[in-house]
Amino acid sequence: MLRxxxxxxxxxxxxxDDIFLSRLQLLVIMAKAYLNQYPLGEYRQRSILENAALVQxxxxxxxxxxxxxxxxEPDSGSLDYDPVFYQRIKLLTVMAEAFAKGHALEDHxxxxxxxxxxxxxxxxxxxxxxxxxxxxxxx
Amino acid sequence: MREVAIIANVKxxxxxxDVVVRDFVVSTLMYSVNRNILAFDxxxxxxxxxxxxxxxxxxxxxxxxxxxxxxxxTSRIKKIQPKTIVALFSDAPQNEIAAREHGADVFMxxxxxxxxxxxxxxxxVVEPEPPGDDAADA
Lengths: 139, 138
Hints:
The complex is a heterodimer. Chain A is mostly helical. Chain A has one domain. Chain A contains four helices and one strand. In chain A, helix 1 runs antiparallel to helix 4, helix 2 packs antiparallel against helix 3 and helix 3 packs across helix 4. Chain A is globular and about 40 Å long. The two termini of chain A are 29 Å apart. Chain B is an alpha/beta fold. A five-stranded parallel beta sheet of chain B has the order 2-1-3-4-5, sandwiched between helices. In chain B, helix 1 crosses helix 5. The longest helix of chain B has 15 residues. Chain B starts with 11 loop residues before the first strand and ends with a helix. The relative contact order of chain B is 0.17. Chains A and B meet through strand 1, helix 1 and helix 2 of A and helix 1, strand 4, helix 4, strand 5 and helix 5 of B. Strand 1 of chain A pairs parallel with strand 5 of chain B.
């Protein structure tokens, strides 16, 4: 039997923050795959649209919390990123929706997408390179 | 280099009563394989579907499920369709041993992420290279 996931001593229920960060990581991979011209398809498009919509909703809520923290409200204990980070996520979701709907992003928009991904990736870490996910090359 | 292939028309089912986790797993797997993913919120509905419509290639299920739990479901699936890959996930360390004893192929310890689901696909859904490809690539 193979074992994936966290170490035994760190096992716990998955919280909303875990799901948000995982969905954000998935969205980044989706965008990188698009920039690398990996094939899309009906279900990949559907998955991108659903994922982008959910990340956008969560990011909006977390952005409000981040703004509140910047004023004088006490820390709610949730994810601690600055409001600009959430604006970058919102931009990513909008771009993801565009390419998932088949709207080709012009070169300068692709550059903007790549730059935005770079900024987001500075805040979150990845263990796996896109090139290692060979199944994404299959339509 | 050999072209990558995945199991043709791969059929994957996800079973979890927690809709937030279930939807995340479904999104990730749907994107990975570009196929529809079956989703159920309890073990009984999943089992009935499998009996009526055939067993999936891969089942990803929580250990804690209503009516038929993940461990029982694994035993039932393996008895009738041993080729079906079963991945069980849980937040309780003691369920790892139980999952092994019931015949699960993978135990996914919560919290898990995108990389763990990608590993699952890479291991069980990507077609293995035919013998001799190493020599051809060398």
